[in-house]
Amino acid sequence: MPTRRPRQRVKTPSALVPAVAGFGVILLLLLSVAAIGVTHIHRLSDQLTAIVSERNQKATFATGMHGLHQARHQSLLLAANLEDPFARDEELMRFAQMAGAFIQVRDQFLALPLDGEELNLWQNTRDDLRQVEEITGEIIDLLRRDALQAARDRIHTVLHPRQESMIRGWQALLDMQRAKNEAALRLEWNGHSHQVGASIGVVHVPPHWASLDECLAAADAACYKAKQSGRNAIVVHANGE
After folding, report:
1. What sign for the dihedral angle of Cα 117, 62, 50, 191?
2. Which residues lie across from 236 on neighbouring strands?
3. Which pLDDT value is given to residue 34?
4. What is the pTM of this model?
5. So what's the pLDDT on residue 25?
6. Which CB contacts under 8 angstroms, 24+ apart, belong to 203-206?
């Protein structure tokens, strides 16, 4: 009696295999795009931070020069009203010390890259500064010769108008930096100007996170921290938080 050979089953590829493979490819592409996007965002954020930081430094130095020259003007005015020659000389020494502090701030300001508009404004302010220094030197000579009334008259009639013009120049430099910081974060759209900012939370998705809700909660927490850190901040969620 002939023996029957057992039937061999021919295995056919499961329809799920290409689907899973396709999903894996798509997932890898999405992760790659996300990684590139995060890198690009970090680069743009660093560039924006550098620009704003540089303009903030310029604004700080402009404020410093503005304040120092106002203080020097008050010091010179005080010296012109001191009858005691020793007290007057002491005040003039304080005046000279502020001149040294001004030179340091000025050199720090000029060490930064200045565009054409900033250079033009600086040139105009520097012209006022030179005239202020020349007039101030003449007033100090009068004070050393005890010609107090002549020194006071020259402060009010000659120095004060030039001083006011120079102070306006420092203020214009400060206002320029503030305006440029605002313009860097402004978007013109459909005839309207919008202030633009972004607070970004980034999440690395580890294998042990099983739910989408957990991932979204982490991203939300990172975004909230970014908002707390200020405008245009990026916070990467740390696993375990």
Report:
1. negative
2. 202
3. 52
4. 0.55
5. 53
6. 203/236, 203/237, 204/236, 204/237, 204/239, 206/239
Contact 159, 167 (CB under 8 A): no
Three-state SS letters, 24-40:
HHHHHHHHHHHHHHHHH
Residue in the structure block whose two tokens are 């304040």: 67
Q: Which residue has the tokens 């997932």?
A: 27
- The total number of residues shown for the chain amounts to 241
For residue 25, give Cα distances in angstroms to 20, 21, 32.
Answer: 9, 6, 10
In this predicted model, what pLDDT tens digit does every residue of 142-197 receive, in sequence order? 999 999 999 999 999 999 999 888 888 888 887 887 777 666 666 666 676 666 66
- Two structure tokens written together for 130: 């030179």
* Ranges under pLDDT 70 in the chain: 1-55, 181-190, 192-198, 204-210, 229-234, 237-241
The conformation of residue 192, written as its DSSP 8-state character, comes to E
Alpha carbons 70 and 48: distance in angstroms, whole number:
33
User: Please, what is the Cα angle at 187 between 183 and 188, to 5 degrees?
Assistant: 105
